[in-house]
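Record now logged for everyone:
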Amino acid sequence: MKIAEAVTFGGSGLDRAGEVRADASAVATARADSAARAILFWRGKPLISNEKPASLVRLPMDHPVLEAAAEAPVLLGREDGAARFAFDISSWSPDDLDPGLLGGFLDPTEQQHPALGDTEVFAELRRVMTWLSARDAELAATGKAILGWHETHRFCARCGAESAIEQAGWQRKCIACGGSHFPRTDPVVIMLITRGNSVLMGRSPGWPDGMFSLLAGFVEPGETLEAAVRREVFEEAGVRVGQVTYLSSQPWPFPASLMMGCAGEATSEEITIDPVEIEQAMWVSREEMMQAMSGEHPTILPARKGAIAHFLIENWLADRLD
C-alpha cells in the first residue's frame, strides 16, 4: 500500500533522538537549549491552539506553567535539531471542572489554564486529531501514550516497589529489585474483510447510534497477524477468512495500541455474532459504503475520520489498497 503512512499519527518522520536517552548529560544539554520546547498535556489532552488552522502548542522551557509538572519530562524527539519534551500537569484542577463531562466517547470539553493564552486549550486528541499536521499529530500521540504508560506503571511488576523514571522517560527502573520496565504497546489487528462487492462491518455496545467500523481485536501471545485476523473475525462474527495481507499500521494512543490494518477474503458469508464482543455485524455493499462515507446513508454512520478504519475503507472504495 503505497500511501500506508499517510494515516493519521503516521508519516511525519520525527527524529526520536533515541541515541541520547541514556545519556543524562546530553539530555540536560538538550533541555537547556534555547530552541528546545515543551509539549504540554493535562489528563491525556494535549495543549493546542484552537485558532484555525489548529496546531500543537510548543512552549518555551522556562514557561511558569511547567512548574506544575509532578515528574520529569519525557524526551519526545527533535525538530530542526532542537529537543521536544512532554510535560504532564494533570494535578492542576480547573475551577469549573465537571468530571461528568470528561472521558466520554468523544469528550467535547476544553480546559484553559489561566497562565496560558486565550486560544490555548487542552482538547481531547480523538476529537482534534484530524485538525493537526502530521508532525503535530505524531508528537501528540507519542506524548499521550508515554505519559499514560507512566501513570499506570509507577510500581514494579516484579516486586511491587515504586519505580523511577530513567532514560529521558523511556524506562522505569525499580530501585528495590533492579527490574527494568519499558513502555507498553498492544498489537491490534483491524480487518478489512471483503466478500465480492461487500465489506464486513460491526459495532460495539455504547457507540453512537448508527456508527459502524471494521472488526478489530488484540493479537494473542504466540500468534501471527494472519492467525489473529482469522480468529477474531470468526469469534466476533462467525465468518471464516482465507487469504490475509498486511496493509498499513497506525499508533493509537487510547491508551497504547498499534493498529495493524489487514485485508482478508471471507470464505463464508453467514454471520453469527458474539454478543459479548459486538452488538451487530453486517455486510455492506460498496455502493452503500460510499453513501455512508459521504454522510448520505439513512442508517449507517462511517468509522471515525482519522481512525485507520476510515482510512482503509476510503482507500478500498478508491481501489488504492495495492
About this structure: DSSP finds six helices and 17 strands in the chain. The mean pLDDT is 95. Residues 28 and 168 are 9 Å apart (CA to CA).
